[in-house]
Amino acid sequence: MNIFQLRYFVSVAQLENISKAADLLHLSQSSLSKSIAKLEAELGMTLFQRSGKKIVLNEQGRRFWQFSSLVLRELELAVDDMNLLANGFGNKLKVGLCGANKQIMDCMQRFIISHHETELSVTSNIEQLDKLDINDYDMLIYPEDIRYEKFQGYHLGRKRYFLAVNSASALAAKERVGLEDLGRDPFVFIASGNYVEHAYRLCVALNVPLNTQFFTDSPEYHCQMIANNQVAGFVLEDCTDAYQLNQQIRLLPIDDPRFAREMMLCFKRDKHLSEAGRQFKEHVIADLGLEEAQRSEVKKGE
Q1: Which tens digit of pLDDT belongs to each residue from 176-188?
Q2: Which residues make Cβ contacts (< 8 Å) with residue 178, sequence separation at least 6?
Q3: Which of 42, 99, 133, 152 is most buried (CB neighbours < 10 A)?
Q4: CATH of region 90-155+262-301
């Protein structure tokens, strides 16, 4: 078994199609099929269920896919780390966000202005990821949620939800809405795989009527659906720019204080940070006043 077999296996598992995977990997279909067959022979078990052109993981395949993905991710981290050692300085930074966060985006912009050589990559949909590893990112912005309880971070503050409604909705005439107003319009929620946005879970917990629901995995389409149809959706206050710019949408404050999220920030472990990562961490902490905020919280709790 070798690393190429693992990569081929993961590609087929993701695309569920030998032909498409072969094109992606620049292999012939027969070569890829032989590689998968050889891997199954070495393991002594089948990994896929085959139905025509479609090929999907069986139970054994799903377990092996988890381990294979972990091995490939660790290998990628090792290669990145070796490149940093070889170059003496790593100028690539990766940030994961839970939606667009204006406070953080402004902070990152100020860092880039004084560090022109830095390349900064931003992922804005970390909540839709099945697994989240801090070692994949130099910095993460995430909600205070049981899924992320293993992370040790700084409090960024409580972010409230707005209700986004179509301008033709009867609710658009209101200045703000209460719990009793929610559910009058059909809802659209953001969902992907096993993930459904937090606002949906709040509605279920608070018995908000969910008579008609739509789901999308795209924040952009979420905004378009509200603008083009008489549906409503929830938007965190840091993610309102696209909705505010659309004349067909009104954003209404929600009186119920439970429609909010506590946001957190954490960094990759110091021993894994590049020099650029350490400089970025120092900048963010100073720019956002995080050390001082944490000291204030400790004093309140004493």
Answers
A1: 999 999 988 999 9
A2: 254, 255, 256
A3: 99
A4: 3.40.190.10
